[in-house]
């Protein structure tokens, strides 16, 4: 190939510029504007209710102990007058199922009310934003502060804000650990700087999570991390109450003076002030319709009603309504009449059944547990008195907070006799024979001997029953086992 031809080919080559395409959009910081109104008031009411419960319950005493305590060291869970053991895991399972069904029910009725008013992420973000506004100022002041160059004033405000955030987050972590370690004991250990490694780790971990999620990540947790936002659509339908923009009334939107006619046919009620976007904690525009980022806090409805009031327009351009209600222009009563639909009734029926079943189970719950194990070292033997003997290990767990007396007996074979170790208080007392005493919330292992006359039963395995009776409550627990007769 000649040099001229090579040169011509090289001249025809077209250089391509390298283009870098980012798969991730830059995250712009959201500065929610403060507002007031009925939904804002309810949101703050829920903030106070949830936080008074969270921070106050660990300090509440019940008798001589903490009212709500999940004591992992002793493997006992105290919920007011109830004492649970790991064997009571079925109750936790029932509570989780009830919580899930409750979420389905509330979502079918009124959308993401949980997210907007009681979710910890929403609650703590609201608290952290309140701290931020008190230290750095309102929305405009915060935006100016962040855009300004670093100065002593800016450094001081930022340092004060983060100091308050970190202090509150550590208090939150301390309270969280107080549900698992008695909080008064935890307080004493903290004051004397003698916290254990696990308590220290969880206080710092939970505090860091609160500081990071509520102080920095905020709406990103709701938009990208929370799975509820992704599957909520399967629980919505056209009769679910959601924060809705009345497009028929609001469009076409446009700015105008306050003196403009209310019934201007060229413009809708929306004056395009964008305040609904400015107050939104996730930064969405509610006028674009239902979006998965919407947590239904109602801030846009509050601020829009304020604007409508100033303009002399009817409120409710943005409101809690249903898609059917907006499309058909239903009244509030018509909307409420369509809430009790088959899906809601089914959820409510299942949820009511589970709640009643759980309450009934707790009401009928026997306040002690019994476990029976055969002594593997002794299958069957002849005792010193010439009787055939089987040995068992019996565990009795006292689930009450009072000392209890338990009387033991066994049935299933003729002439079956039970012998066990005696408490010192009952030594020589025939009336309280085979009665054991167990202290509050404690468990005890007993060696139990069952005896029959040698030759009175056929060789093989015989079914028997142990009966343990609580003398104070007169409740009885029965456990099955077997008695072996050798050939």
Automatic annotation (TrEMBL):
Domain (4Fe-4S ferredoxin-type) ranges: 258-289
SUPFAM superfamilies, alphabetized: 4Fe-4S ferredoxins
Pfam families hit by this protein: Fer4_18, Fer4_5, FixG_C
One cellular component (GO) term of this entry: plasma membrane
Record-linked PROSITE patterns: 4FE4S_FER_1, 4FE4S_FER_2
Keywords recorded for this protein, A-Z: 4Fe-4S, Electron transport, Iron, Iron-sulfur, Membrane, Metal-binding, Transmembrane, Transmembrane helix, Transport
UniProt key word Metal-binding: yes
GO molecular function: 4 iron, 4 sulfur cluster binding; metal ion binding
Record PANTHER family: FERREDOXIN-TYPE PROTEIN NAPH
Name of the protein described by the UniProt record: Putative electron transport protein YccM
Organism this protein belongs to: mine drainage metagenome
Lineage, top ranks: unclassified sequences, metagenomes, ecological metagenomes
Gene expressing this chain: yccM_11
